[in-house]
């Protein structure tokens, strides 16, 4: 069964706790601390599997959790790191936070593997806390918790061209004629329920991927029928082909149909109407008097708007070559980069919303100090040695109000900020 949406719970592994122990050897009467560190919790990773084309597997399993890190042990033994969990999804899957509906990741284009939730950092054993005045520390650091999140998976097909039109106008027949796709075809008065994809190969002109978007009905943008489920598959396409019944076999007005579908596209996402459109006036094999058909009216109405009209017969193949080569030319004029949605939601920050922090000024060292569980945990999740990680950490400081508190404390450009042994120069 084709499934293009699912809601699941994902969780990264908890970091193992640091261990508290002391050397107890026969000839070492005053053995120091030797508690080992906990292991890192496993990451929760999403990866594209080219063999998948549906989210159906997620209907049978709702929770996915990476392995926890092992606790540290005596004799400075480090706990084992938790195993990462790799969740495989079809190309084109968007991962959204279920509560806010913001994008966490778009598994499209070059993004074929991404860590969605990082595992918790392992806690330090008591060996790290020995000082000249505290030579037998009886405490260790607990491991950082994993992050648990409910996400919504949404599959948007990846195709260059989308076929749109009311049910029973010939979209499936056209797709089967120009590609190797084999959709079910019959004279039904209801729509295809699944998007079907096929590859169009053009001699000496490359080719493109075309998708038969299930038939739209008026009210689709408001969720009538399966409207939202269908409309989302158009968002990645670069060119749209409107297919209409030029012979009006069932008494439909093809001009009214095109305007009706464009209204649904506009209500759903106004950006969709900016895509190049082509009209395929189908079923001309059933027209016996062209002058009395809808063809002249279609051309008069839409070619003046810059939308070309191609008379075709999906059954006989008449006019298909001209239509496909024109669409290929339109694609050559559009941006070839795939439509990829930018990240809007960062799960790392979610884990620290309720944690505290404080800002002080150290007169002796002439530095501003920002510390607290919120900052300490974030440093554990973020690799600030990389440019991307450091920029993300800066965004975290701004979004969590930490930079505002530093400014309230009187910090100026060029001043030094200290955070758990790390020092930064402050610049707006």
Question: Could you characterize what this model shows?
Answer:
- The protein contains nine helices and 18 strands.
- It is α/β, with parallel strands linked by helices.
- A six-stranded mixed beta sheet has the order 10-11-9-12-13-14, with helices on both faces.
- The chain starts with a strand and ends with a strand.
In short:
This protein has nine helices and 18 strands. It is α/β, with parallel strands linked by helices and 428 residues long.
How helix-rich are the residues, as a percent range? 10-25%
- Which regions contain 5 or more consecutive residues with pLDDT less than 50? 183-192, 218-227
> What share of the residues does DSSP label as strand, in percent?
15-25%
Q: What sort of overall outline do the alpha carbons produce when their principal axes are compared?
A: elongated
**Biggest sheet, open or closed, and with what strands and sense?**
6 strands, mixed
Q: Helices and strands: which structural class? A: alpha/beta
Count of alpha and pi helical runs: 9
User: Order of strands across the widest beta sheet?
Assistant: 10-11-9-12-13-14
End-to-end gap? 53 Å
| Average of pLDDT | 81
State the total count of DSSP E strands: 18
> Mind telling me the C-alpha Rg?
30 Å
Give the H and E element order. Answer: EEEEEEEEEHEEHEHEHEHHEEHHHEE
